[in-house]
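Sample intake — Bifunctional protein FolD
Collected from: candidate division WOR_3 bacterium SM23_42
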Amino acid sequence: MAIILSGKELAETMRQEMKAEIERLKEKHNLVPGLAVVLIGDDPASVSYVKGKERDCAKVGILSREYKFDADYKEEALLKLINDLNRDIEIHGILVQLPLPNHINEDRVLYAIDPEKDVDGFHPVNVGRMMIGTPGFLPCTPHGIQQLLMRNGIEIEGKHVVIVGRSNIVGKPLAMILVQKKPGANATITICHTRTKNLAEITQSADILVAAAGRPHTVTADMVREGTVVIDVGVNRIEDKTRERGYRLIGDVDFEAVSKKAYAISPVPGGVGPMTRTMLLYNTIQSAKNHAGIE
Ligand code: NAP
């Protein structure tokens, strides 16, 4: 049976560390990191993500300010709000919950956020910094995956990392982070997608296999070599009448079968998800320190 890479446990440890750091920042520098979260509409998943982020902030001592608007909120008003938040000295991080309603241009909104407050790491300035390898905000999910590997003592340097999925929020940035000439990186990367030929042949050559396809059972046991480290990013709802809510969450990996072959594997839920949330807190604290000129 594989070692379980529990993001839930690591996230808890990191949050304790962050709480202590925030107490120090308050005491020594009178600095309270602040995050503004903007939610347009009432999509149930988005509402629940935003609630989770507020709870996370409260637990570690980050000031969180929530801006909630109806689904018909105008783009112009949203851009004005972002402009105000860019200049607000209590706010160090601005997060606009995606997806936005169709009448709002997502790129225009994300590009309006000051890159120095872009704690999601989606602004092209931060994407460019990530590629070059200079300091900036790293996107939370791939950064969380790197932390999950490093802090579980999984060697990344020189390893073949195969990533299934090439989205701008998971697959591509993860490749960019792990290929850097830096500690916790220096990997050799292959990115796969729906046009990839012989997917199983490639995944079998992975030392570290990351599934970020958004489809259950994308990675089955025959696609994985004995001793591989498997990270499951996928979050898929499947019907489950035994649960009160009528569904449960599963990843992209056939956990039952793959965990018998893998050296280590991250579960869903309780794997990458809590790490993503934690790295948002990390970026917000980082931003507060940057704004105050604290090393
Ligand atoms: P996405 O934008 O839909 O991208 C999925 C990628 O997977 C695409 O590049 C797609 O290829 C590729 N793909 C899909 N099916 C494939 C297959 N059968 N074989 C090979 N490649 C395949 O999704 P995303 O935003 O990256 O998210 C991926 C999953 O991670 C989702 O389940 C999402 O909910 C989850 N997620 C979790 C977290 C977390 O914190 N736990 C954070 C973000 C996302 P093409 O480009 O060719 O279409």
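Post-analysis note: Residues 140-273 form a domain with the Rossmann fold fold (CATH 3.40.50.720).
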